[in-house]
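Duplicate of #3305? Posting structure anyway:
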């Protein structure tokens, strides 16, 4: 397997050291708009491989299975040319979802398989945004499913942690734990703290602020009674008790891909996604919205055109650089309620916790980006080994969950289950 990894930011930079410990691929070309960033990721891995030697790398001379190029993810022709030049049979999309469709189409045109961690963007209903969906997450991609099927290629969409592992959990519960499911709720929470230069807690999002603004300020989607409807951002607050010492965190509805993916393959009465944002983060997002700083439409500033959201993103620290200043754990998981296989009421929480101290020590990556990065690597290994197979546009729920969960344990980051 030869992979074009587009994006050398937080998640992309974490993918490389994770993949370097595995042997399922021939080569990974790391591509980024800023070529120097891609080169830095590859150079770091080569240095680590030389130091570690055969324990984690392929040889003591350094890992030569990685190379770096400069590439504009929004330039479809350039992406197609890169896929052909480097003979890549998989495009791994690790950039903001605003670039999804150019990468998605490029892979299809070249005849490569495709994997991303977030679906194509939504657009709210023009008249009733807090009641009805407009263009839903993933609609543009699923509309092209017949073309992928005709090409005999796979577009595996939403294969990160959330979406991704959370969807695998939903399929696992449906296949092995429940006779029928009343509700599936993705619940994400953490007790992570980022320290500022003065030692005090700082405001520094641990994931792409561009993506966070998109999913948190758009109308959240809920699956209920056989269809999708929307609600207001940050609605239905609830306190969820997260495992492994994280504890109670208030979670609220935000727009997220699982609600659009899970019902396509798993039968459930209701599906929601709630995120433990915290009151400060919610207020910051609301303020950005009031000031129009969440807008992606360019405005003219001193003769230059710039998107307000891009300015916000550029003003905050790169999430990939926060690891040394972070402490705590992050938890992604899927809560399921229904009738168990024994015919009795059952309620469980399937989860995956990453401790920032561990991920920094083992991989040099902060917990949130490492947790997002490991799951697509696991999926790619299953595809390379022929264990997961498919054609068309498919979500993680379309595949057997057991090989994935077993392999995740082998990667040294086990998942857990708690009876509620």
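Output from current build:
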């Amino acid at each position: 397997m030869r992979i074009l990894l587009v994006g050398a930011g937080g998640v992309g930079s974490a993918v490389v050291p994770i993949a370097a410990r595995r042997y399922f691929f021939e080569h990974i070309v790391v591509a980024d708009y800023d070529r120097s960033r891609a080169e830095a990721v590859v150079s770091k891995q080569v240095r680590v491989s030389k130091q570690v030697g055969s324990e984690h790398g392929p040889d003591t001379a350094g890992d030569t299975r990685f190379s770096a190029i400069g590439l504009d993810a929004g330039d479809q022709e350039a992406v197609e040319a890169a896929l052909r030049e480097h003979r890549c049979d998989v495009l791994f999309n690790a950039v903001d979802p605003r670039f999804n469709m150019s990468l998605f189409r490029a892979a299809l045109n070249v005849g490569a398989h495709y994997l991303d961690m977030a679906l194509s963007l939504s657009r709210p209903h023009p008249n009733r945004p807090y009641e009805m969906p407009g263009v839903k997450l993933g609609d543009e991609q699923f509309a092209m499913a017949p073309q992928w099927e005709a090409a005999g290629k796979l577009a595996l969409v939403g294969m990160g942690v959330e979406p991704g592992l959370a969807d695998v959990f939903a399929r696992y519960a449906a296949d092995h734990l429940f006779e029928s499911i009343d509700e599936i709720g993705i619940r994400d929470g953490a007790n992570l703290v980022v320290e500022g230069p003065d030692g005090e807690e700082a405001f520094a999002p641990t994931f792409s602020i561009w993506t966070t603004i998109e999913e948190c300020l758009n109308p959240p989607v809920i699956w209920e009674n056989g269809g999708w409807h929307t609600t207001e951002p940050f609605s239905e607050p609830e306190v969820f008790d997260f495992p492994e010492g994280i504890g109670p965190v208030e979670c609220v509805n935000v727009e997220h891909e699982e609600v659009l993916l899970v019902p396509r393959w798993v039968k459930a009465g209701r599906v929601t996604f709630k995120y433990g944002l915290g009151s400060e983060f919610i207020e910051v997002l609301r303020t950005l919205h009031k000031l129009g700083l969440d807008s992606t439409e360019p405005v003219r500033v001193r003769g230059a055109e710039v998107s307000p959201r891009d300015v916000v993103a550029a003003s905050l620290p790169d999430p990939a650089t926060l690891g040394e200043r972070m402490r705590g754990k992050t938890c992604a998981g899927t809560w399921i309620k229904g009738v168990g296989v024994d015919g009795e009421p059952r309620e469980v929480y399937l989860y995956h916790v990453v401790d920032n101290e561990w991920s920094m020590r083992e991989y040099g990556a902060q917990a949130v980006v490492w947790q997002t990065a490991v799951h697509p690597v696991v999926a790619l290994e299953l595809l390379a080994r022929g264990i997961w197979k498919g054609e068309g546009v498919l979500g993680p729920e379309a595949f057997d969950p057991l090989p994935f969960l077993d392999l995740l344990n082998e990667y040294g980051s086990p998942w857990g289950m708690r009876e509620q």
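Confirmed duplicate; merging threads. Confidence is low (pLDDT under 50) at residues 54-61. The longest strand covers residues 178-190.
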